Amino acid sequence: MMDATPESQGRRGRGRPRDWHDKTAQNTIKSLDRAMQVFEHLSTTRGATLSEIAADLDQSPATIYRILVTLQGRGLVEFDPVEQVWQIGVQAFVIGARYLRRTSLVDRARPIMRELMEDTGETANLGIARGASVLFVSQVETNASIRAFFPPGTLSPLHASGIGKALLSQMEDNALKRLLARRNLERFTENTLCDPSALTADLQTSRTRGYAVDDEEKNLGMRCIAAPVFDATGETVAGISVSGPTSRVSR
């Protein structure tokens, strides 16, 4: 089957030079390709040390460090000085958000979120993982005077939010263990799961039943029920939730 290139469709190609020929090896910028390998590798982790990245990609730490600093300068990666790990930066979300608009992930979720809000009477949220946090990317608010409020751009810790726990529940066991070993699980309320063993057990329960619960673990008086969102390949791409006062949201 022929590719639908501009030439095959009778149009002049405008995305490359006139004298371009399809010689992939000759037209690849090796340093850029190596940088993209690092960037893509980080996108599959919750954060990684310099030595871990270098070992995983079979490159010298010095080479990887130069790439990371370059990407950091563009906001595509960030360094956590406390945990000593590199992770995806906020600029990656900015670029990703533009892609989401094009692929209409947020747009596709809006009708479902509105239906959730109308069925439950509570605020519906959509969030994605960013490092050790959930980044809220869309929200449909309830009209109730007392309600949860997570406007797009808000960050919340993975271990103390419904969407965060829904996303964590889908991680492979070894990846989850490495993540929890590197992080100090901050306490926000008396219900926050700060012990890795307790959190892991809760996540296993969430995985089995298909949804996670934030039971006043970030904010007293607020409860959240969340589920993972999968793409066509079965990969977890986001989480969706309803949040509200404990007086109205039951487990």
Instruction: Tell me, briefly, the overall form.
Output: globular
Overall average pLDDT: 85
Q: Which value, in Å, is the CA radius of gyration? A: 21 Å
How many individual domains?
2
> Would you count the extended β strands for me?
8
Cross-sheet strand order for the largest sheet: 5-4-3-8-7-6
Distance between the termini: 52 Å
CATH architecture of the largest domain: 2-Layer Sandwich
Element pattern in H and E: HHHEEHHEEEHHHEEE
Fraction of residues in H or I helices:
25-40%
What is the CATH homology-level superfamily of the largest domain? GAF domain
What is the chains' assembly state?
single chain
Q: Would you kindly provide a written description of the structure presented here, covering whatever features stand out?
A:
With 251 residues, the protein is α+β, with helices and mostly antiparallel strands. The protein folds into 2 domains: 30-88, Winged helix-like DNA-binding domain superfamily/Winged helix DNA-binding domain (Arc Repressor Mutant, subunit A, Orthogonal Bundle); 104-245, GAF domain (Beta-Lactamase). It contains 8 helices and 8 strands, in the order αααββααβββαααβββ. It has helices at 30-43, 50-57, 61-73, 90-103, 105-120, 162-168, 173-182, 196-209, and strands spanning 77-80, 85-88, 123-130, 133-140, 155-157, 212-215, 222-230, 236-245. Strands 5-4-3-8-7-6 form a 6-stranded antiparallel sheet, with helices on both faces. Helix 1 (30-43) crosses helix 3. The protein is globular and about 55 Å long. The chain starts with 29 loop residues before the first helix and ends in a 6-residue tail after the last strand.
